[in-house]
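pinned: reference chain
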Amino acid sequence: QKVYRENDDYLTRAQQLIAAIFDHFFCSAGGTEQHTFLEKTPMHLRQLDIILKQFPEAKAIEIIRDGRDVCVSHLNLKETTKWAKHKTSAGVIGQWKQCIEMGQRLKSNPTFADRIYTLRYEQLRAHPNQELKKVFEFTGLSATPSEVEAIVQEADISKRKNKGKGQHVFKGAVGDWRSVLPDHEVALVQERAGHLLTELGYTW
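pinned: its structure tokens
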């Protein structure tokens, strides 16, 4: 990425290649002008400025969750999960803090501000239909109330069979950290990111 940014020709060629790959994937999957390409890779946040510049029509949805619950969920993943490289609360909350701050910087840029929608995980769990309706409105996609309800039912974590410790989904609970994280872990999280959690409206 650094090399590309120092050489305009390389950067232009890389951007053209990326666009061609996306176009090929989209078309090979049956995509037409009536379809929307949806992609979910959390760590693309690190390159979101490049993505939004490359695709002027693109929008991004940022989901923010209580960092303490993120620790609980992350630490209960399979030990062999390759992308879950952090195995301690210190590592997890450090990455969470970094991602939150990246999002804040991007949203403070007028060029991107109205193309990024922030969705609170806790609100999504409490009011899934209302929150999904807002997401559809932001993306410009249409969905009837019955279609939204069908999505909510299909994605209901309580109905998922394969969940729990060692699975991709642990519980999806809100506030689980209060009964799961040991006091010393809570203290560590507060030391590393307490001010940011408070700034986001999370209480202790």
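why pinned: The CA atoms of residues 73 and 170 lie 6 Å apart. DSSP finds ten helices and two strands in the chain.
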